[in-house]
Specification:
Elements lengths: L12 H24 L3 H7 L46 E5 L2 E6 L2 E6 L15 H9 L4 E6 L5 H12 L3 E6 L1 H5 L6 H6 L4 E3 L9 E5 L3 E5 L5 H5 L4 E5 L2 H15 L15 E4 L2 E8 L4 H10 L4 E6 L5 H12 L3 E6 L11 H6 L3 E4 L9 E5 L3 E5 L5 H5 L3 E7 L1 H17 L14
Parallel strand pairs: 4-5, 5-6, 12-13, 13-14
Antiparallel strand pairs: 1-2, 2-3, 3-9, 4-7, 7-8, 8-9, 10-11, 11-17, 12-15, 15-16, 16-17
Helix pairs in contact: 1-2, 3-4, 9-10
Length: about 425
């Protein structure tokens, strides 16, 4: 008698039924996840089922290939990124990023770069472009991109892939830095049929934000470039908020559809509202009064102000900081070293007024545009604290009042403060001229 092979491809009715049941449970979990926003593995855990392993693109090794070369393929399985916390949860979850820092709570996720100072491009892997890439990979309908610069190979690849699978992709960019720059990959997007609108003016389209599926906005100081992700200090924040989406979508549409940039842009896209008990304000320059918005917020400080700035040349903000320090508010700030000792920078004014101001220690660039007020209010976005940013450029700024989010930005501040340098031999006599 021939013995049955237990590894036969023939399946018993019972195993077929079990397989069908498992598929049904997975479908139910997927539908529930889509409706509730709860991570699918949390739902599977509730149902007593094994968790689902989802593969998303990893960071790729950056090569020195010419910019016209197609970006490398995205393969393999990265460390888990882009963890989302169920809406309404007050739990802060740390997100592991090989070259970066991340955390999530309720409707927000926040990420910070972790530059090593290396110039070896082969080490540029596992940065904060990974969670953004994962979000783009998950896009189903639309992807709108406002990018000052764009050359990150991973982001280039996943945007091209999104276009290929039918996602409606649109872009606005700066003409000089977005299209004409030798390292830019924007032309690859154009060649793939993605419509790209440049600003075609001397002032900058300096925004760095994306809107995905009309459900989430990604913004911050991060340029979508190799330098932005792996060499410079930057922050990136994702917000799942209908009001934030509507505000940023209106701003994007003005640039993309109406070709309205800078001071020619109509006002009215800025909003103030509360999301799950968290006060939020969006501001767009140059059409809105971004300068006085920052001055007013700083002037309201009761206990502390921390700041990290790539460019800080606005006297009114410096005066507000000096006034607050004179009234007992603790002020500490970090300036990007390059240009910080020129007559335009406010470093000398603050230092000579006795405030604790330092220069950054990154051998590349500290690119943050951040204020943290009273350990509660976070100001971030693309807006430098300079005259061009507030009066000429296209910029976005968002103000969020959440102590848990502020704690994440304070953690980044302390990391940067630990490597910052006290300025030497600043000439306070120039302030008398």
């Amino acid at each position: 008698m021939t013995k049955k092979n237990n590894n036969s491809s023939q399946s018993s009715p019972r195993s077929l039924l079990a397989s069908l049941l498992a598929i049904l449970i997975l479908l139910v979990a997927l539908i529930a996840s889509g409706i509730t926003g709860i991570d699918i593995n949390e739902i599977l855990d509730i149902l007593g089922q094994p968790t689902l392993v989802v593969t998303t693109p990893p960071a790729v090794t950056v090569t020195s290939a010419p910019p016209e070369t197609q970006p490398p393929s995205v393969t393999g399985t990265p460390p888990p990124v882009g963890t989302r916390v169920a809406d309404g949860s007050n739990t802060v979850v740390e997100i592991a990023i090989p070259q970066g820092f991340g955390a999530a709570k309720s409707f927000w996720q926040v990420y910070f770069t972790a530059p090593t100072g290396s110039r070896d491009l082969s080490t540029y892997m596992g940065g904060i472009d990974n969670p953004l890439a994962a979000a783009i990979v998950a896009a189903q309908r639309t992807l709108d991109i406002a990018a000052f610069e764009f050359n990150d190979p991973l982001l280039t690849q996943v945007v091209l892939d999104a276009k290929q699978r039918g996602v409606v992709v649109r872009m606005v960019t700066d003409d000089e830095h977005g299209i004409e720059d030798d390292d830019s990959t924007v032309q690859q997007l154009i060649d793939a049929g993605i419509p790209v609108v440049p600003d075609n003016r001397s002032a900058l389209m300096h925004n760095k934000f994306m809107i995905i599926d009309s459900e989430q906005v990604w913004t911050g100081s991060l340029n979508y470039t190799i330098n932005g992700v792996y060499r410079n200090n930057n922050n990136l924040i994702s917000l799942r908020s209908n009001r934030v989406v509507l505000s940023y979508q209106a701003e994007f549409d003005e640039m993309f559809l109406q070709k309205s940039f800078g001071v020619r842009s109509p006002r009215g896209n800025s909003v103030s509202f509360t999301e799950q008990g968290v006060p939020i304000q969006t501001v767009f320059a140059a059409e809105d009064d971004a300068l006085n918005t920052v001055v007013d917020r700083v002037s309201e400080a009761q206990s502390s102000v921390r700041f990290m700035t790539f460019s800080f040349t606005e006297r009114d903000i410096a005066d507000a900081l000096v006034e607050r320090a004179a009234n007992g508010v603790t002020v500490r700030g970090i300036f990007e070293r390059v240009g910080s000792e020129t007559t335009y920078s406010e470093l000398t004014r603050l230092w000579c007024a006795g405030l604790d101001a330092r220069q950054d220690g990154n051998p590349f660039i500290l690119h943050h545009k951040v204020f943290i007020i009273d350990n509660r209010v976070v100001i971030t976005g693309s807006l430098n604290f300079s005259e061009n940013a507030t009066t000429s450029n296209d910029e976005n700024m968002i103000i969020i009042e959440d102590r848990d989010l502020a704690r994440q930005y304070l953690g980044e501040f302390e990391r940067r403060w630990a490597e910052a340098i006290r300025p030497d031999d600043l000439d306070c006599s120039i302030l008398e001229e």
